[in-house]
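Researcher: Let's do a round of design. I'm pasting the structure tokens now; please hold your answer until I've finished.
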């Protein structure tokens, strides 16, 4: 079944001007999205089946949300053949520059994840060499720094092995520990996730 998202504008209360919920974007808010999915790596041993398609589908669906919760949706989808370490980090910097305090920044990464000998997580770029992760993959530190320094709210979707390592200990100023937030259930989980402005779904 095709992925479909059709929220009502200001769905939490239905009244844009009266809404005071932390979950609702402010009038004029924009959604900035960076989507990366890699199925075909330069190393044929790393090949996946659906990662690239997942990122393309996600980007298309999210782009269609303009005029619902957000005034505008700006999507940057990196084609897998271009998804080098340098290209991904360049667009992480773009996200940091563009997202204002009233906006939402969203990341979608799908592909291989790997830990080095010291337990550090890396998202493998298209050029990844498993014996040289530091030089050919995007580190957890690069990802969490980009998320933590956004002026507005942030949501990160990570579909890879070891993805939970991205959430561990991730904090931003004035926020709860993201791994703790994800572990919460029910209304308290929802309230923490939205009010503190950052969530990682791995």
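Researcher: That's everything. Go ahead.
Model: Designed sequence:
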């Amino acid at each position: 079944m095709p992925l479909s998202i059709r929220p009502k504008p200001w769905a939490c209360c239905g009244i844009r001007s009266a809404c005071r919920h932390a979950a609702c974007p402010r009038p004029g808010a924009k959604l900035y999205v960076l989507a990366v999915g890699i199925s075909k790596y330069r190393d044929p041993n790393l090949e996946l089946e659906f990662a690239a398609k997942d990122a393309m589908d996600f980007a298309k669906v999210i782009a269609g949300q303009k005029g619902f919760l957000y005034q505008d949706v700006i999507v940057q989808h990196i084609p897998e053949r271009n998804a080098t370490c340098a290209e991904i980090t360049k667009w992480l910097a773009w996200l940091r520059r563009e997202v204002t305090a009233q906006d939402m920044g969203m990341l979608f990464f799908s592909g291989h994840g790997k830990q080095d000998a010291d337990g550090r997580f890396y998202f493998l770029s298209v050029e990844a060499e498993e014996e040289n992760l530091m030089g050919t993959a995007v580190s957890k530190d690069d990802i969490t720094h980009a998320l933590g320094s956004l002026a507005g709210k942030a949501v990160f979707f990570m579909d890879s092995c070891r993805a939970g390592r991205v959430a561990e200990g991730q904090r931003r100023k004035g926020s709860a520990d993201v791994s703790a937030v994800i572990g919460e259930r029910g209304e308290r989980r929802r309230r923490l996730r939205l009010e503190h402005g950052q969530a990682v779904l791995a």
